[in-house]
Amino acid sequence: MLTFVALALVLFLGIGPQPSQSITIYTGWERHALVGSDIRLSCSFFSWHWTSDDVTFSWSYRADGSRDSISVFHYTGGVAYLDNKGPFRDRLEFVGNPARRDGSIMIKGVDFGDNGTFTCDAKNPPDIVGRPSAVRLLVFEKVPIQAGVITGAIIGAVLGLLVLIVVIYYLMRFLVARRVFNLSVSKHGKKKGKEGSQPRQGPALSLDPSKLKAASTEKKKQESRKDKK
């Protein structure tokens, strides 16, 4: 019974060996550098477990046109082992932070002969199954024209979009203000037209039938007197 309770507690609290899960490694896809400059090659990983004290990082290098790769860096047990015989002797520096899952390295004073592919592999026990990630280094004498053109095109497109938005905004404001003004003028014009079209009414004429009859009789008498004379 006690054994069963202990096993249940182990399963409930997660005490004991943990299963291994896959690890995902990240590097840049391509890096550009000028001759004689220093370049940082970044490498990090994602793991479902906390960063282990036994975390390891390994870097290998394959020059352009070569089929073989050589090991240039290895980190394990808290110690960094640098290349002291190959092409990066005295030019490679570990600048990562394993506690933060960072295994970046720095290549100093790059030259055209450093063009090639750098591959990073990482292990975070018990997560040790993962696919290494590679980054290609391209060394130039000056900044590539294509990169400058692409950057300028992106900046120009963003600025053009902002200008277009501002123009549309003020155009809409102008059209709305113009419509409101036209409606106001049209409304006042109709009011004035109605007031001007109303006829003026003069004093009402008194049409009394008895007075009209008396005036007609008097007129006939006057005409009769004229005829007698």
Protein topology:
Layout lengths: L1 H12 L10 E4 L2 E5 L4 E3 L1 E4 L9 E8 L6 E7 L2 E4 L9 E3 L10 E3 L8 E8 L9 E8 L4 H53 L11 H20 L1
Parallel strand pairs: 2-11
Antiparallel strand pairs: 1-4, 3-9, 5-6, 5-10, 6-7, 8-9, 10-11
How would you explain this protein's 3D organization?
This protein is α+β, with helices and mostly antiparallel strands and 229 residues long. It has two domains: 20-142, Immunoglobulins (Immunoglobulin-like), CATH 2.60.40.10; 143-182. It contains three helices and eleven strands; from the N terminus they run αβββββββββββαα. The protein has helices at 2-13, 145-197, 209-228; strands at residues 24-27, 30-34, 39-41, 43-46, 56-63, 70-76, 79-82, 92-94, 105-107, 116-123, 133-140. Strands 2-11-10-5-6-7 form a six-stranded mixed β-sheet, with no helix packed on it. Strands 3-9-8 form a three-stranded antiparallel β-sheet, with no helix packed on it. Strands 1-4 form a two-stranded antiparallel sheet. The longest helix has 53 residues, at 145-197.
